[in-house]
Amino acid sequence: MSVKAFKLISAVERETLMGDKNYINIECIECCGKNLYIGTNDCFIYHFLLDEKISTAGKITFAATKQLHKYLGLKKPVSELKAASALTRLLVLCDNTITLVNMMNLEPVPTGARIKGAVTFTLNENPVSGDPFCVEVCIISVKRRTIQMFMVFEDRVQIVKEVFTPEQPCAVAVDGYYLCLALTTQYIILNYNTGASQDLFPYCSDEKRPIVKRIGRQEFLLAGPGGLGMFATVDGISQRAPVHWSENVIGAALCFPYVVALDDEFITVHSMLDQQQKQTLPFKEGRILQDFEGKVIVATNKGVYILVPLPLEKQIQDLLASHRVEEALVLAKGARRNIPKEKFQV
């Protein structure tokens, strides 16, 4: 039984990004407020302003206005972008080096501050330093079996900690002092302050792409064995039942109360409240699915789309209209904190 939880709306058309240059592919995206950044395989960063428009009939559309683009001067793809809005900096990973650039003009910081030797990186959304003018960055290093923690300021970087892992890490998410790591054969939780580690469950990174995603304070979402989306806390326990994904999920995102997953052919939507699959959207050639401040964005090699959630009140009304009272009650109670009080009472 399906629920219409999301609508898929095009945000950046292929022509807007690449014109007639067919060789250009999207490698990564970042969204911060209305600012959308796209990194491509030919070493360019594009900056768009995203405007959401709602017609009188309630139809939502997005207009992406190109601000500027910048060539990074290498023959390598831009593999990751992360915005640090408090510093007005964009962290750009290209050719194993993280460069700091200005979010508005895409110019590198004058000091040339950079982090070398990074395979992939993530930001700590629950930072431990308490300094508002600094972001904490965790990298998987090109050195074997090594994770490094950095503090990144407006124009300088400082290494804080280097941690060695029992096997080669291939994906990481951070919460406070806790690292949730996908290693070659298993997922683990590692406290980089105390060195204490906790095994979660086995996983073969040679067979499929691991997914490690921080979804809230001290809680992560992982792609588990048998096509399961598993939840794990920093204590190594699961407080929620798993969701059943397909075997070949390539990306996952959280938009409460839903977990959204992307595979080769579909976007699937599962409820965290009753673990049921609520919606399936056909989506071919998808390669990126991420959530940014509650905005869920999917991308193919050539275009960017936004998954717009329908208001929870509307979803509840639709469930009641199709006599699915139990599901409507579960959604209303579970999503209570996301519904205005007077509407919840009704």
Automatic annotation (TrEMBL):
<dbReference type="GO" id="GO:0006914">
    <property type="term" value="P:autophagy"/>
</dbReference>
<keyword id="KW-0653">Protein transport</keyword>
<dbReference type="GO" id="GO:0016020">
    <property type="term" value="C:membrane"/>
</dbReference>
<dbReference type="InterPro" id="IPR032914">
    <property type="entry name" value="Vam6/VPS39/TRAP1"/>
</dbReference>
<feature type="domain" description="CNH">
    <location>
        <begin position="23"/>
        <end position="296"/>
    </location>
</feature>
<dbReference type="GO" id="GO:0005737">
    <property type="term" value="C:cytoplasm"/>
</dbReference>
<dbReference type="GO" id="GO:0034058">
    <property type="term" value="P:endosomal vesicle fusion"/>
</dbReference>
<dbReference type="GO" id="GO:0015031">
    <property type="term" value="P:protein transport"/>
</dbReference>
<keyword id="KW-0813">Transport</keyword>
<dbReference type="Pfam" id="PF00780">
    <property type="entry name" value="CNH"/>
</dbReference>
<dbReference type="InterPro" id="IPR001180">
    <property type="entry name" value="CNH_dom"/>
</dbReference>
<protein>
    <submittedName>
        <fullName>TGFA1 protein</fullName>
    </submittedName>
</protein>
<keyword id="KW-0963">Cytoplasm</keyword>
